[in-house]
Amino acid sequence: MVGKKAFTSKQKQLARLAKAMGHPVRIAIIEMLLSQSCCYHGDMSLEIPVAKSTLSQHLHELKDAGIIQGTITPPTVKYCINKENWSMAGKMFEKFFQNDKNHG
Amino acid sequence: MVGKKAFTSKQKQLARLAKAMGHPVRIAIIEMLLSQSCCYHGDMSLEIPVAKSTLSQHLHELKDAGIIQGTITPPTVKYCINKENWSMAGKMFEKFFQNDKNHG
DNA sequence: TTAGTTGTTCGTATATTTGCGAACAATAAA
DNA sequence: TTTATTGTTCGCAAATATACGAACAACTAA
């Protein structure tokens, strides 16, 4: 039990982002938001094969991970990608896949 | 219940890869393998703060997802990144983050 | 106020994940 | 054969994740 290191915050953050993307429903949500700039729960509900309550849960998880944002525009809720965080996430994954430790 | 589309195999594959990366232990494993070319269970066990049986489970998951490979070299087992699959995964994530539908 | 629309939260059930130690398997060494 | 080393699998417990419909909240329109 000596010498074992705790996880770094980068490792934890990357894992958190990956986990948030680790479900087909959430991949589909992100793709819709990326391709249409913004979308409404109802729109997504027509395309994605889960109950609206389940969709809401997945949206909540993506929001929690910082990947998307929601804005209330009664009676609907408009979701969009959190562009700043999405860009950061993209860079993290890029570095990870390149294992590029010298340009960070 | 009309008009809902099943998930594409790309969506499912990306979600599967993301899910496999969605845990700090598995991120740490991949980082070790990327930086040292190859590693042994025992080496990783000294660095990563989980029981050896738990580590074995995580290695199994990464193998299942196609990210790593294991070769028995008695009495140890040598793990390495499945470079071909890793490269493909990198490209999938790259496209996803760029939402680049015109160059695939 | 009463309906209607949209989306979230609640309550519940089931499935999966994570984790550990014990037991096991495979091999090498004595 | 016995012992030691390495790593996996088993058995179990606890925590999370997934999913659904019902109920609810917030707002708009009649």
Describe this structure in words.
2 copies of one chain form a homodimer. Chain A has a single domain (17-97), classed as Orthogonal Bundle (Arc Repressor Mutant, subunit A). The model of chain A has no long low-confidence stretch (mean pLDDT 91). The two termini of chain A are 32 Å apart. The first copy, chain A, is α+β, with helices and mostly antiparallel strands. Chain A contains 5 helices and 3 strands, in the order H-H-E-H-H-E-E-H. The longest helix of chain A is centred in the C-terminal third of the chain and has 16 residues, at 83-98. In chain A, 30% of the residues are buried. A 3-stranded antiparallel β-sheet of chain A has the order 1-3-2. Chain A has helices spanning 9-20, 24-36, 41-47, 52-64, 83-98; strands spanning 39-40, 68-73, 76-81. Chain A binds a DNA duplex (30 and 30 nucleotides) through residues 23, 25, 40-42, 45, 50-61, 72, 74-77.
Descriptors:
homodimer; 104 residues; alpha+beta; Arc Repressor Mutant, subunit A; 5 helices; DNA-binding
Domain count of chain A: 1
Instruction: Please state the average pLDDT score of chain A.
Output: 91
The assigned CATH architecture of chain A is Orthogonal Bundle
How many helix segments of chain A? 5
**CATH fold name of chain A, please?**
Arc Repressor Mutant, subunit A
| Main structural class of chain A | alpha+beta
Regions with little confidence, pLDDT below 50 for 5+ residues of chain A = none
Largest interface: A-B, 39 and 39 residues
CATH class of chain A: Mainly Alpha
Number of strands of chain A: 3
In which range does the helix fraction of chain A lie? Answer: 55-70%
What is the N-to-C order of secondary-structure elements of chain A (H for helix, E for strand)? HHEHHEEH
- CA-to-CA gap between the ends of chain A? 32 Å
**CATH superfamily placement of chain A:** Winged helix-like DNA-binding domain superfamily/Winged helix DNA-binding domain
Beta percentage of chain A is 5-15%
Judging from the principal axes of the Cα atoms, what is the shape of chain A? elongated
Largest sheet of chain A: 3 strands, antiparallel
What is the spatial order of strands in the main beta sheet of chain A? 1-3-2
Oligomer: homodimer
What's the gyration radius of chain A in Å? Answer: 16 Å
